DNA sequence: CGACTTATGTAACAATCACTATGGAAAAAA
DNA sequence: TTTTTTCCATAGTGATTGTTACATAAGTCG
């Protein structure tokens, strides 16, 4: 998972993977079938492990604004954590462009789920009256997602947690500007 | 350039490049030396051609706010233009992570120039009095850059120009919130 | 027209790619 | 203890990687 995360699909060879796992090719193929299936399993594992650390804190928020703020602030922390490659594996994946549509479909599914999660959160906030009905939910969800995706690139470039927290703070100012009537 | 832009460094083979150029390997190597040097020449060509279309409109702006707005709105248009691959080649490049530090250095240089351009613009606005001295220039520059980088990922995922213009608009609301005392 | 430099295509280079057939060792079952 | 099954490494599969030696064709100049 870490190798694919860091180097991408094409640039990571089966030799690299075997060396990192301390295994020989036959064992790898007996366990995962192919390099492609291993990547899918790796990114699914990534989502299952890393997902809660980002989506978890949002669930405890008492307002949509606080949820989005936690989403971005937690991202600033997680994406720059030093015990794994920087940035989000799903956001940074380019397997489809590298000529692997099967993986691309899985990645697209995970990305769509992130967007839909944000959208549903905002829709519920409109329903409950926290947000005025005039607010453009799709725009706001896409904006938050876009900022978080940009953070992944910044993190890979070497930005610090503080750098990204500044970005999150700036984005929340955008929220306040847009939500106001 | 388009092949590298779309598929990245590792996933683009010399065969692909030769086929796309209608040339055989010896000609390619006589002209460019190596795949690596060709990538560098391609991304430099990208910057020389595509750079002005983004940085050009900013120069005509009459305020820092308008300049940033043009930066983001023009990006929304250019990054989704249909006559070339979606997203920014410099932002989306992962050559360093793919194991090519020489290319990584060139990409880092181009990215740093973008950040420095934004930073200088904001510094000048503080100097001229348009922006209060209390504003965090580095934070604002990084925020604008981050949003633009996120746009590249969204564009590659299939977002439309209108989608990204919505993001740009939301980001400008963030500007207004941050610049106010 | 002939000599020479400049290209470009053919073919092949060693290395690495993803992947697998085979054989032997360890563990489980009888 | 013997048999059977599971497991895994050695070694090698054909294909493709980036790159180049050679030979032929084209263009340039005397």
UniProtKB/TrEMBL annotation, chains A, B:
<dbReference type="InterPro" id="IPR036271">
    <property type="entry name" value="Tet_transcr_reg_TetR-rel_C_sf"/>
</dbReference>
<dbReference type="InterPro" id="IPR023772">
    <property type="entry name" value="DNA-bd_HTH_TetR-type_CS"/>
</dbReference>
<feature type="domain" description="HTH tetR-type">
    <location>
        <begin position="1"/>
        <end position="50"/>
    </location>
</feature>
<dbReference type="InterPro" id="IPR009057">
    <property type="entry name" value="Homeodomain-like_sf"/>
</dbReference>
<dbReference type="Pfam" id="PF00440">
    <property type="entry name" value="TetR_N"/>
</dbReference>
<keyword id="KW-0804">Transcription</keyword>
<protein>
    <submittedName>
        <fullName>TetR family transcriptional regulator</fullName>
    </submittedName>
</protein>
<keyword id="KW-0238">DNA-binding</keyword>
<dbReference type="InterPro" id="IPR001647">
    <property type="entry name" value="HTH_TetR"/>
</dbReference>
<dbReference type="GO" id="GO:0003677">
    <property type="term" value="F:DNA binding"/>
</dbReference>
<keyword id="KW-0805">Transcription regulation</keyword>
<feature type="DNA-binding region" description="H-T-H motif">
    <location>
        <begin position="13"/>
        <end position="32"/>
    </location>
</feature>
